[in-house]
């Protein structure tokens, strides 16, 4: 009989993670980057751009965003490294709170009972002042499947728009993350 | 999920375990005031998106990346230490072949970061970032320098206890963990609003490593043990296949 034990608690990522987690500015390679899919990956290539904004409406210049998503066919990769489609991306925010990823638009993902979930991207936010990773989801505003998505259905209707990335160009979406205050992004307990 | 696709490990992730984490809203930690969400979290059922996750295995780490003392021409200043432990799940089973990333201040309490203004010297032989992948038994080892405490502006005369930042993936999106390892007997722990934000004392002390003479290397380095428990219980094939 194994001894049961509690999990290790979370602590903030703090302000000084970049040299390890997002080290491109320091001239070294991280395990992941903002390129979730290379040009060789199948699917509709898109760019996702956004800002992280605090409760005073100010930019958050020291956050790290991670994303995890299925490929264009709705399949999750079983290996993240050295593939055209990695499924996972990591980006730090700049002085203006901005981040960006290049990827392909995910396909619908199968749910329990075989129903399809609307295309979405899992998003994690880490920053100084966040004792836990904040989990949210990015959906696409122009996706008809949103109407029947069981996760979106759990989100109060008046807050649902905070999860919808706006199409700003044929191949670009904008997704801002408001940590607190007016238009606060929906965060999930996962 | 009725049937996870091949390759997706069936694992239970009880939500009660989340009680170990600090609340987002912790006013004594000043940076939470404008950053912690104010609205309640929405409960997300665990779908395929959460039950899968990125896999970074042994190919993602180069040999020697777990020794932070040999990354430059000379030896770094400070107290050389070995940090070792196992990554386990909530049933005490090992989490093998999972990536751990660490970063830390140097022995003087200074980070290699453009925004670290602490008036303490940088060490040209220490940049303070390392990686390792756990072995088949979930074990890992880093060799590094004991980080120094450093002042921060949270409140008057605020000092962070010496710590090493840890980032882990585990088998799914749900097991992702970023935390900090502390050192035993540090008087600053009692005064630190980040450490003290964890409400349960029994959970809090899991972040404090143990000094271990068996890990200590004679004539070389002090040894510390830091085991990490990620979310998740072993696969439970007997459970109701229609639950969510």
UniProtKB/TrEMBL annotation, chain A:
<dbReference type="Pfam" id="PF00775">
    <property type="entry name" value="Dioxygenase_C"/>
</dbReference>
<dbReference type="GO" id="GO:0018578">
    <property type="term" value="F:protocatechuate 3,4-dioxygenase activity"/>
</dbReference>
<comment type="similarity">
    <text>Belongs to the intradiol ring-cleavage dioxygenase family.</text>
</comment>
<dbReference type="InterPro" id="IPR050770">
    <property type="entry name" value="Intradiol_RC_Dioxygenase"/>
</dbReference>
<protein>
    <submittedName>
        <fullName>Protocatechuate 3,4-dioxygenase subunit alpha</fullName>
    </submittedName>
</protein>
<feature type="domain" description="Intradiol ring-cleavage dioxygenases">
    <location>
        <begin position="48"/>
        <end position="76"/>
    </location>
</feature>
<dbReference type="InterPro" id="IPR015889">
    <property type="entry name" value="Intradiol_dOase_core"/>
</dbReference>
<keyword id="KW-0560">Oxidoreductase</keyword>
<keyword id="KW-0223">Dioxygenase</keyword>
<dbReference type="InterPro" id="IPR000627">
    <property type="entry name" value="Intradiol_dOase_C"/>
</dbReference>
<dbReference type="InterPro" id="IPR012786">
    <property type="entry name" value="Protocat_dOase_a"/>
</dbReference>
<dbReference type="GO" id="GO:0008199">
    <property type="term" value="F:ferric iron binding"/>
</dbReference>
Automatic annotation (TrEMBL), chain B:
<dbReference type="Pfam" id="PF00775">
    <property type="entry name" value="Dioxygenase_C"/>
</dbReference>
<comment type="similarity">
    <text>Belongs to the intradiol ring-cleavage dioxygenase family.</text>
</comment>
<dbReference type="GO" id="GO:0018578">
    <property type="term" value="F:protocatechuate 3,4-dioxygenase activity"/>
</dbReference>
<keyword id="KW-0223">Dioxygenase</keyword>
<dbReference type="GO" id="GO:0008199">
    <property type="term" value="F:ferric iron binding"/>
</dbReference>
<dbReference type="InterPro" id="IPR015889">
    <property type="entry name" value="Intradiol_dOase_core"/>
</dbReference>
<protein>
    <submittedName>
        <fullName>Protocatechuate 3,4-dioxygenase subunit beta</fullName>
    </submittedName>
</protein>
<dbReference type="InterPro" id="IPR050770">
    <property type="entry name" value="Intradiol_RC_Dioxygenase"/>
</dbReference>
<feature type="domain" description="Intradiol ring-cleavage dioxygenases">
    <location>
        <begin position="83"/>
        <end position="111"/>
    </location>
</feature>
<dbReference type="InterPro" id="IPR000627">
    <property type="entry name" value="Intradiol_dOase_C"/>
</dbReference>
<keyword id="KW-0560">Oxidoreductase</keyword>
<dbReference type="InterPro" id="IPR012785">
    <property type="entry name" value="Protocat_dOase_b"/>
</dbReference>
<feature type="region of interest" description="Disordered">
    <location>
        <begin position="1"/>
        <end position="33"/>
    </location>
</feature>
<dbReference type="GO" id="GO:0019619">
    <property type="term" value="P:3,4-dihydroxybenzoate catabolic process"/>
</dbReference>
<dbReference type="InterPro" id="IPR024756">
    <property type="entry name" value="PCDO_beta_N"/>
</dbReference>
<dbReference type="Pfam" id="PF12391">
    <property type="entry name" value="PCDO_beta_N"/>
</dbReference>
